[in-house]
Design goal:
By secondary structure, the chain is an all-alpha fold. The chain has one domain: Orthogonal Bundle (Helix Hairpins), CATH 1.10.287.3510. It has 3 helices and no strands.
Length: 111
């Protein structure tokens, strides 16, 4: 499969994520759109890593080129899992204080 398909698909996912973050008011939807943007970046990292590995193996039979991108994706997923736990805790506390998950209520918590 050509790398352009991965680039277009990742661009579409990232664009949907940005539009969702900028237009939605629900904290859970915004949180899901941020995760969608992270997954779009992960898809690109894996696609370019696979492409780089394929090019390196044609030149050298034993090559570990391209593995770094996949390891970086693993670390991004670990950070995303930590973000999910902290983000959901914040959303739960927001709901307990305001009985809504509307982002505009965050300004009221300053007082």
């Amino acid at each position: 499969m050509p790398i352009q398909y991965y680039i277009y698909f990742s661009l579409a996912l990232f664009s949907i994520g940005i539009i969702g973050v900028l237009t939605r008011r629900n904290a859970i939807i915004v949180f899901m759109c941020i995760e969608l943007m992270l997954n779009a970046v992960n898809l690109l990292l894996v696609a370019f890593s696979k492409m780089h590995h394929g090019i390196a193996t044609t030149n050298n039979a034993v090559s570990t080129a391209g593995v770094e991108g996949q390891l970086f994706v693993f670390f991004i997923m670990v950070v995303a899992a930590a973000e999910v736990s902290v983000g959901l805790a914040i959303i739960v506390m927001l709901y307990r204080n305001t009985h809504s998950v509307d982002i505009n209520f965050l300004n009221r918590l300053k007082n």
